[in-house]
Amino acid sequence: MDDIVDLVSRSDDDLRALVAELEAEEREISRRRRMLHGKLDILRAELVMRLQHKHNQGESVISVDDVHRLSRILAGLGPGDDEPTGEATPAAEDPGER
């Protein structure tokens, strides 16, 4: 990033070289990202295949823990929360306070 700070004093050739260097870096990062996405796709496909295999053998693919976690998520609870994370509901009004 220091190369970008002093653009005014750089020659045109220096700027072109910097552009080429950063473009090469961008291509490498993009290649690495595509490789990572490919690995993730392979891992996800393996998990799906294993779940399908379990299902085909009559095993449950959803555990009690999965249902409990989903219930907490749908209730707006986080990992350590005891109360919903949404807006607080107003307290019931005491009829004698009017």
Describe the structure.
- The chain starts with a helix and ends in a 24-residue tail after the last helix.
- It has one domain.
- About 5% of the residues have low confidence.
- Helix content is 61%, strand content 0%.
- It is built from 3 helices and no strands.
- The protein has 98 residues and is mainly α.
* Number of helical elements: 3
Strand pairing plus helix content: what structural class?
A: mainly alpha
Unreliably modeled segments: 88-92
Which oligomerization state do the chains in this entry correspond to?
single chain
Rounded average pLDDT? 84
- Strand content is under 5%
Kindly provide the radius of gyration, computed on alpha-carbon positions and rounded to a whole number of angstroms: 28 Å
The major pleated sheet works out as: none
Number of domains: 1
Helix content: 55-70%
| Record field, number of beta strands | 0
Shape verdict? elongated
Cα distance, first to last residue? 64 Å
Task: Report the order of strands and helices.
Answer: HHH
